Amino acid sequence: NPYADDPSTKGISVFTQDELNELVITAHNGGMQIATHAIGDGAMYMCFEAFKKAQEQNPKEDPRFGIIHLQITDEVLLEKFKEQNVIAYAEPICLNNDLHMIEDRVGKERSKTTYNYRYLADNGVHVAISSDCPVDSLNPMKNIYVAVTRKDYEGYPEDGWLPEQRLTIDQALYGFTMGSAYASFEENVKGSIEPGKYADMVIISEDIYAINPDDIQNIKVEMTIVGGKVVFAQA
Q1: Beta carbons of 192 and 201 less than 8 angstroms apart
Q2: Do the Cβ atoms of 117 and 130 come closer than 8 Å?
Q3: Distances (CA, A) of 173 to 59, 148, 165
Q4: What is the spatial distance between Cα 232 and Cα 235, in angstroms, rounded to a whole number?
Q5: 90 pLDDT exceeds 90?
């Protein structure tokens, strides 16, 4: 449907459905993993249709299709992520800017479908969290803060925007670790601290489970370890 504040446009689809189908099917047949970028509901419906056609033509047991950003998700779309086992590449940090304009742009009712990441995580959808950098900060602590508070960097709104969609600390950390490792078929070597996996980890300045969620964005990295070797340490 059109934007609430500009009925002349529904946004821009870069490809037609047929063009998108051809691209996805070609990549799928070529053995590539596919992630598409879709913000609006109409664009996401196109992606799910293309994924479906690719699987119908060339069924694969575990293709791990994914959609990046996934902002305006109605109830049907939320269920499609589960039904088609599509990865949700979530970007909670975008809410820092978007919460100030979303109701004006799409109206109050559609704004309730914005970044419904908690629903996806609670319903067993594979969620990987990304930064959308350079649009917003690359700092994962900023991203986790927004994910678990649903507030902007200044702490607005006080109770969080659509607070029922706040991720738990566990869900946010999972999105940055095991969720992202799963998205790249690397969950057997990355994403958690276990024997046999790469010793990639960070030491942070605060206990993220004990700190006030409003202060998570101020957590600093004290040390970074990659492959068991210290590559950064605060002086």
Answers
A1: no
A2: no
A3: 32, 10, 16
A4: 9
A5: yes
pLDDT in tens, 134-176: 999 999 999 999 999 999 999 999 999 999 999 999 999 999 9
How many residues can be counted in the chain? 235
The Cα–Cα gap between 76 and 48 comes to 11
Q: How far apart are CA 225 and CA 158, in angstroms?
A: 36
Cα separation values, 19 from 53, 88, 115, Å:
12, 22, 27
Q: Which two tokens stand for residue 37?
A: 């970028």
Mind listing the pLDDT tens digit for each residue in 58-71? 999 999 999 999 99
DSSP notation for 184-215 = TT-TTTSSS--TTS---EEEESS-TTTS-GGG
- Token output for 98: 């978007």
pTM above 0.85, yes or no: yes
What is the spatial distance between Cα 85 and Cα 107, in angstroms, rounded to a whole number?
30
Give kind and range of the element (H or E) at residue 67. strand 66-69
